[in-house]
Specification:
With 307 residues, the chain is an all-alpha fold. It is built from twelve helices and four strands, in the order βααβαααααββααααα.
Length: 307
């Protein structure tokens, strides 16, 4: 390949390199956006030089993918001002360090999708989108994006408590609060706006446990997705969750129609699972006739408990 030594490239180098050095001195790195133009080296100016595109092209040449090559002297000069040859690895490492700071400060990586930060632990709308980065990593891990996470990165993320199934993680946290409420009160008669930090003491800054319980009932009736895992359903019924209360008794007696049959299928399926959960603790099953009759009684609402 032809080295960058002709007059055209020399003139371009002599224009660009000083601007790039100014950018580095001002920002402390060469993580320059490809569309960045400037006249003074550090401020964006659409009438300026294509500094971002130039840096992008240099990376291409360095990796042997361009039509020209970089000589050793120019590589050394670029290295002296912090040239980033692998910008994707550089940006990944930068985000990882912020995620590690967040974990060290907050104790988990349950980061809201809209969370932006500069220091890793405080919200700053002028910072980088750490929440989006974590969300996208989960999508990649579960195969929802056309990229891969290598084993080394997965290990590094696991080392700082990466939560791959954020839905299950958040459900478990709320369930433990519901269990604390039940252990303290022996029931789940929770007001719709009840918030708590410990599960039984009301606190306006806490988790809305009343809403959590309402959402579980809606899932049971087929109004919300996803449906319960077997484990989730059993855990809720272990703390005496009541699926039908006075406000939703109508659904227990609702006639199945073309409009509601998909939802009712989910409800009936869940009610069958609830019935079988009664035998989950080594209780002996009834004979087939008794089993059928008792389940039909359940479907007819004969075990409805008013609240």
């Amino acid at each position: 390949m032809e080295e960058i030594n002709n007059s055209r490239d020399y003139n371009r180098w002599s224009r660009m390199y000083p601007l790039v050095k100014i950018y580095y001195d001002y920002y402390g790195n060469l993580d320059i956006q490809s569309d960045f133009k400037t006249k003074n080296g550090y401020e964006r100016d659409d009438d300026g030089e294509y500094v971002g595109a130039w840096i992008r092209d240099l990376r291409t040449y360095y990796n042997g993918k361009g039509i020209v090559s970089l000589d050793k002297d120019k590589i050394e000069k670029l290295n002296a001002i912090g040239m980033i040859w692998d910008v994707y690895q550089y940006r990944w490492n930068k985000m990882y360090l912020l995620a590690k700071i967040y974990y060290d400060y907050h104790g988990d990586l349950d980061i809201p999708n809209d969370f932006k930060t500069k220091n890793g632990y405080e919200r700053d709308d002028d910072g980088v989108s750490l929440g989006t980065w974590i969300r996208d990593l989960r999508s990649v891990y579960h195969g929802n994006k056309n990229t891969l996470l290598d084993e080394e990165r997965i290990k590094k993320l696991n080392a700082i408590g990466m939560i791959w199934d954020i839905y299950q993680y958040r459900w478990n946290k709320k369930y433990l609060l519901a269990k604390a409420f039940y252990d303290h009160n022996s029931h789940l008669d929770i007001k719709s706006k009840f918030k708590t930090l410990d599960g039984y003491t009301e606190n306006s800054n806490g988790v809305n446990m009343g809403n959590f319980i309402q959402v579980q009932r809606k899932r049971y009736l087929g109004f919300l997705e996803p449906n319960f895992s077997d484990e989730q359903l059993l855990l809720l019924e272990d703390i005496r969750m009541l699926w039908f209360i006075k406000k939703n008794k109508f659904y227990q007696e609702e006639i199945i129609t073309d409009e509601n049959k998909s939802r009712k299928q989910i409800e009936i399926y869940n009610r069958l699972r609830s019935y079988l959960n009664k035998f989950s603790h080594n209780n002996a099953l009834f004979c087939k006739e008794e089993l059928n009759q008792c389940f039909l009684h359940d479907l007819e609402g004969k075990y409805f408990v008013k609240k």
